[in-house]
């Protein structure tokens, strides 16, 4: 009589659990605060501190480029000559007063070199800002995907605990009927405790992942659920690109800025020229006359040789970085494309494995209840089912990581289009 009552209840409970296990989206979702969608978070990139820092760095470089166009300030000089001397020059009665204005001329291309160098540095800063934007977007996508994966692993751990408890109840019933040894019941209870500990660990990892997402995205309130799935999205196939990766563009701009600085340092070795015009007044006669002069520095001791050598060294370093960046970007792109293709295949294989594991567990459960399959075989198929479900989550995380790497190289947000 006990067996007749237990089997229908166990079969009904098994059907509900397997249905929830096979379709996590159908499981009951607690009423918790959900995150904004991934697109909403990407749209708020400009408000994140890292992006504000990148914007400020670019604004500083743009301001320096604007300042480089300013002309040097003139100087005003007032002189009084022939005062407090002897004879007729005693006191200030025969003093001569001169008021003049001197203006640096910046000849020999000094001003144009300074402007071009500052403009090149601003262009490089703009590309670095764009690079920072997509790096931040990748970091946000990774935090979003990790939070979603942690939530799924928590749900899987809860379902695994439910299955383990149900199997333990079945084993306990068979132990009471004398169909299984007492040792099997002890082993089943041990598996329940291990599954319960795994659930606690998964809960802690889930809470930590959502806390990191809330911190990175600057969410007003802590969240514990994902609004729209990112793991289930299929990235678009990478297409052929004619332009250089963003990292190579940054290295090229930095080389151009370093080359402009070489010109600036070479211009600094040339003489500085200033022109002056003034008015002189003779005290004894009351006459006035104009004064005109030119001032020229003589590069006798300081020819800026150290500055020129340093600029050339920085130019060589920028050239080396560009060469290395080209090779590295090409290798990274090939690696990211291969990883994306492999992770997509892995995801399809994992989904097929989940379906096979679910069917194997269903059949083993039926055989166990009929007494044709041992508890060890049931435990093995249950462990395979749990492992296959977690492997499907791991495959999706790997696909997201590959898409993040490829998006960073292409200069776009993950799962978005190039701009």
Automatic annotation (TrEMBL):
Keyword GTP-binding: no
Keyword list, A-Z: Signal
InterPro entries named in the record: MdtP/NodT-like, OMP_efflux
Top-level taxon in the UniProt lineage: Bacteria
Signal peptide: 1-27
Entries under Pfam families matching the protein: OEP
Family under the similarity heading: Belongs to the outer membrane factor (OMF) (TC 1.B.17) family.
Protein name in UniProt: TolC family protein
Originating organism: Luteimonas padinae
């Amino acid at each position: 009589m006990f067996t007749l009552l237990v089997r229908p209840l166990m079969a009904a409970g098994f059907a509900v659990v397997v249905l929830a296990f096979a379709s996590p989206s159908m499981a009951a979702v607690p009423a918790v605060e959900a995150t904004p969608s991934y697109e909403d978070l990407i749209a708020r990139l400009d408000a994140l501190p890292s992006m504000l820092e990148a914007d400020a760095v670019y604004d500083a470089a743009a301001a320096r480029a604007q300042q480089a166009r300013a002309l040097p300030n003139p100087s005003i000089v007032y002189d009084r000559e022939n005062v407090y001397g002897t004879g007729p020059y005693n006191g200030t009665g025969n003093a001569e007063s001169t008021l003049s204005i001197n203006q640096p001329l910046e000849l020999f291309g000094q001003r144009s070199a300074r402007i071009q160098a500052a403009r090149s540095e601003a262009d490089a800063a703009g590309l670095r800002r764009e690079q920072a934007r997509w790096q931040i977007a990748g970091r946000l996508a990774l935090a979003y995907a990790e939070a979603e994966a942690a939530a799924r692993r928590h749900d899987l751990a809860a379902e695994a605990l439910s299955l383990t408890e149900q199997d333990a109840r079945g084993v306990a019933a068979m132990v009471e009927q004398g169909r299984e040894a007492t040792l099997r019941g002890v082993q089943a209870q041990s598996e329940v405790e291990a599954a319960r500990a795994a659930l606690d660990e998964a809960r802690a990892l889930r809470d930590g992942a959502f806390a990191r997402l809330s911190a990175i995205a600057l969410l007003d309130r802590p969240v514990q659920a994902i609004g729209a799935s990112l793991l289930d999205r299929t990235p678009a196939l990478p297409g052929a690109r004619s332009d250089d990766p963003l990292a190579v563009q940054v290295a090229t701009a930095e080389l151009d800025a370093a080359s402009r600085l070489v010109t600036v340092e070479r211009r600094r070795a040339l003489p500085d020229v200033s022109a002056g015009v003034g008015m002189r007044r003779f005290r004894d006669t009351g006459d006035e006359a104009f004064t005109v002069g030119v001032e020229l520095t003589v590069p006798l001791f300081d020819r800026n040789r150290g500055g020129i050598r340093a600029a050339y060294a920085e130019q060589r370093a920028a050239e080396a970085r560009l060469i290395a960046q080209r090779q590295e970007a090409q290798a990274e792109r090939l690696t990211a494309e291969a990883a994306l293709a492999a992770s997509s295949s892995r995801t399809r294989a994992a989904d097929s494995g989940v379906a096979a594991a679910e069917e194997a567990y269903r059949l083993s459960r039926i055989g166990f209840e009929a007494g044709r399959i041992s508890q060890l075989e049931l435990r093995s198929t249950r462990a395979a089912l749990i492992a296959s479900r977690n492997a499907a989550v791991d495959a999706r995380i790997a696909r997201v990581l590959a898409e993040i790497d490829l998006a960073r190289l292409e200069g776009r947000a993950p799962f978005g289009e190039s701009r």
